Amino acid sequence: MHYFRYVGNRLCCEGVSVESLAKRYGTPLYVYSQRTLTEHFQKLDRAMAQVDHLICFAVKSNSNQAVLRTLADLGGGFDIVSEGELRRVMAAGGDPAKCAFAGVGKTEGEIEFALKQGVYSFNVESEPELERINRIAARLKKKAPVAVRVNPNVDAHTHAKISTGTYQHKFGIAYEQVEGVYARAARLKNLSLRGFQMHIGSQLTSVQPFEQAVQKVLPLVKRLKAAYGLEFVSIGGGLGIVYNPALESGLPRWWESRQAKTILTPTLYAARLVPLLKPLGLRVVMEPGRFISGNAGILVTRIEYVKRTGKKNFLIVDAAMNDLIRPAFYDAYHEIVPLRRKNGALVNSDVVGPICESGDFFAKDRPLPRSGEGDYLALLSAGAYGFVMASNYNTRSQAAEVLVNGKLSALVRERQPVAEIWAGENPAPWQV
Ligand code: LLP
Q1: How many Cβ atoms from other residues are within 10 Å of residue 25's Cβ?
Q2: Catalytic residue among 12, 56, 99, 356
Q3: Which of 24, 101, 128, 280 is the most exposed place for a label (fewest CB within 10 A)?
């Protein structure tokens, strides 16, 4: 579900022509739909209405201030993984008391900062981390709210690089060890055992692994609640989205074959999980990232050159793997559409960026309308893990970002000035 639609032959984001934005702000350009963000949040919120719950948006999926503000205004909480993310949330008007701090490598400085801000919970991933949090809390004369992240050893059936819930992974504490860890944590005086956490992976397109994981941990959570008076259970994020609505390319690529042809809807998710979770009598915390932001954003790019070689038609665009790394990194599929819809024959094309790497591609042998220099293309479903994973590789500045709300649009991140990229660099003293 999203609000990127053709009106006539022009692609629009809500009530705004995307080409007008591309011309005004230049490309590569990320464009986000506030209505899409809002409706995704509200759909999940409504679906979970039968239980006390808190939706903590995964900031790592899209941390633009305007996106965070949209979710803060809806009353959402945030799943954060660094001091930087917590600072961003606060700058956007988010409430630290609704922030769950995750991650396997929290530093002392980060723990101290988060404790002082009064975060909702530290989602703890190891025993040394529990001890570290306890020590810092004692020094600050505070009690740190903690939840232990369990690794339930359930296969999420998703891409290897975004699967997290088996013993192959660095995340959480093994299911069999968790009870012992809670017992030891209960003896640490400056910790308050508040919850239980798990997250089995990202881009899950079936409810079954979620169900399997919840079923597996239920008896354990019941025992922990009875022993330590927990307040919440967090079932993490991971709700998958549809990346290839039309399945146009027909290529047997890994990512496509795993794509849902039907969406894992919040209604289905809730219908299967709420009956399991409700009897626990705990608040249910969720940490969706991609489900909220994924289809709410696109990356707009301009074709610089069309190059035909013996066998291939290359569309060389001005966006690159530094702007959107998902195809290069995960072989991820992103639907590509022209900003001006065209009739006529489709040409199998490779859409590639200007970076000096063969991995710098967005699509291979994709049937696309015949296009020429100066035409614009949109890469869909780029709102999650898009801009946030951008780099300055090849000394390319980071793209600009725009938020649309109905007929309104605003530049919510300026294009990075190129000299800023090396602003903190200097020759060594002996070189001057
Ligand atoms: N909670 C925890 C503890 C997580 O590690 C993650 C994502 C989430 C929640 C949010 O997951 P989501 O609802 O967005 O699936 N860069 C990859 C995805 C990495 C996900 C990392 N953790 C990609 O582009 O597909």
Answers
A1: 19
A2: 356
A3: 128
Mean pLDDT of 387-412: 98
Q: How confident is the model at residue 114 (pLDDT cuts 50, 70, 90)?
A: very high
Any atom of ligand 1 within 6 Å of the Cβ of 202: yes
Same-domain check for residues 58 and 161? yes
Taking the CA atoms of 202, 207, 208 and 212 in sequence, report the sign of the dihedral they define: positive
Q: Does residue 251 register a pLDDT over 50? A: no
Give me ligand 1 centre to Cα 369, in Å: 33
Is residue 85 within 6 Å of ligand 1 at its C-beta?
no
CA-closest residue to ligand 1 atom 9: 237
Asked if residue 358 and residue 247 are part of one domain, the reply reads no
Q: Ligand 1 centre and the CA of 324: distance in Å?
A: 16
Q: Would you say the CB of residue 388 lies under 6 angstroms from ligand 1?
A: no
Q: How far apart are the first and last CA of the chain?
A: 57
* Cα three-residue angle 396-402-405, rounded to 5 degrees: 170
The answer, yes or no, to whether residue 162 has pLDDT greater than 90, is no
Task: Name the residue at shortest CA distance from atom 8 of ligand 1.
Answer: 237
Helix axes 83-91, 108-117, angle to 10 degrees: 30
If one residue of 60, 81, 157, 387 were mutated to test the ligand 1 pocket, choosing by the most ligand atoms within 8 A of its CB, it would be 60
CB-based contacts of 65: which residues, under 8 Å, 6+ apart?
Answer: 88, 91, 92, 412, 413
Question: Do residues 356 and 260 both lie within one domain?
Answer: no
Find the 79 Cα to ligand 1 centroid distance in Å.
Answer: 10
Confidence of residue 432 (pLDDT cuts 50, 70, 90): confident
Ligand 1 centroid to residue 200 C-alpha, Å? 9
> Which pLDDT score is estimated for 246?
52
Span 47-66, average pLDDT: 98
Distance 102 CA to ligand 1 centre (A): 11
- pLDDT of 54 strictly over 60: yes
13 catalytic? Reply is no
Is 3 a domain residue? Answer: no
| CATH number reported for the structural domain that contains residue 263 in this entry | 3.20.20.10
Is the pTM here over 0.85, yes or no?
yes
Which of residues 311 and 283 earns the better pLDDT score? 283
Q: Compute the average pLDDT of residues 38-59.
A: 98
Rounded to whole angstroms, how far apart are CA atoms 130 and 36?
A: 38
Number of domains composing the chain: 2
Local structure of residue 415 (DSSP, 8 states): P
pLDDT, mean over the chain: 94
- For residues 91-118, give the mean pLDDT: 98
